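Figure 6 in text form: structure in, sequence out.
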């Protein structure tokens, strides 16, 4: 009976993943077409409007990776020094949360730097 449950779970996972992938692709295409139709209805030419690229992509990635790395290091220090856990008994929640927090702070710092630079350029 236990093998049958595992087999059914595997089949259900395959079906659910396939349906989810199809729904995601369908949703992306549907929203893209709907946006273009809304632009046409307002009298805009959709070919003229292209997505704006990020002004400093390397800065954004650099700040994200610096933040994630410092978050990982800070989580390691917290885990070993503050909580005094052994090497194998580490708390993974600390690591994931510190990576997310410090990575987010890195992205926020990147946004502030980009905004300051674009404001400086637009003032000239």
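Output sequence:
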């Amino acid at each position: 009976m236990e093998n049958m449950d595992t087999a059914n779970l595997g089949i259900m996972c395959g079906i659910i993943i396939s349906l989810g992938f199809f729904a995601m692709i369908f949703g992306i295409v549907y929203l893209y077409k709907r946006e273009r139709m809304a632009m046409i209805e307002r009298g805009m030419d959709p070919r003229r409007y292209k997505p704006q690229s990020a002004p400093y992509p390397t800065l954004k990635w650099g700040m994200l990776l610096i933040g994630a790395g410092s978050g990982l290091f800070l989580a390691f220090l917290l885990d070993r020094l503050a909580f005094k856990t052994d090497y194998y008994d580490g708390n993974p929640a600390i690591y994931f949360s510190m990576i997310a927090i410090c990575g987010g702070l890195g992205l926020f710092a990147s946004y502030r730097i980009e905004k300051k630079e674009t404001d400086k350029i637009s003032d000239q």
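Caption detail: The mean pLDDT is 87.
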